[in-house]
C-alpha cells in the first residue's frame, strides 16, 4: 500500500506522504519521488547507498534528503525503491537506500524532477492518534 498521494498543481507535482513516524513519512516521500521519476517501475534493491543530511531545521532535512536522492539518480544513474530513514534531530538524519542502475528495458522513464521546493512544504510529527505527514513540491 502506498503511503502517499499526489495533489493537483498547475505546473509541478505535490506529494503528501504519511507514516507511523516521521522517518516513515520521509521514506514515503522518497517512494513518491521515484514513482514520478520511473513512472512506478518495479525496482530491485541490489545496490545500497548510505548518506547523511544536515540542515538548519526539519523542513531543510526533508528537502536535503530528497535533493540528495535526485543527485544520486542523476549522477550515478540509480533508481531507488527501499528507504530506511533515521532522524537524529531536527538538524541531522541518515538514510540507507537500496536500488539498482536504471535499465530502459526494465524501468519506465517517468517525469524528470529538477529539484525540491520549499514552497508549500509541510512537516507534521506523529501524534497519539495521528500519523506523521510531510508535503513537498517536486519541481518538474
Summarize the entry for a quick read.
With 140 residues, the protein is of the alpha+beta class. The chain is built from two helices and seven strands. The two termini are 25 Å apart.
SSE topology:
Elements: E1 4-7, E2 13-19, H1 22-38, E3 47-54, H2 58-76, E4 78-89, E5 92-101, E6 115-124, E7 132-139
Antiparallel strand pairs: 1-2, 2-7, 3-5, 4-5, 6-7
Report on this model:
A hairpin with a 2-residue loop joins strand 4 (78-89) and strand 5. The radius of gyration is 14 Å and the shape is globular. The protein has two helices and seven strands; from the N terminus they run ββαβαββββ. The chain is of the alpha+beta class and 140 residues long. It has helices at 22-38, 58-76; strands at 4-7, 13-19, 47-54, 78-89, 92-101, 115-124, 132-139. The strands form two sheets. A four-stranded antiparallel β-sheet has the order 1-2-7-6, with helices on one face. A three-stranded antiparallel β-sheet has the order 3-5-4.
User: How would you describe the shape?
Assistant: globular
State the separation between the terminal residues, measured CA to CA.
25 Å
Strands of the biggest beta sheet: in what spatial order? 1-2-7-6
Q: Give me the count of strands.
A: 7
Count, helices: 2
What quaternary form is this? single chain
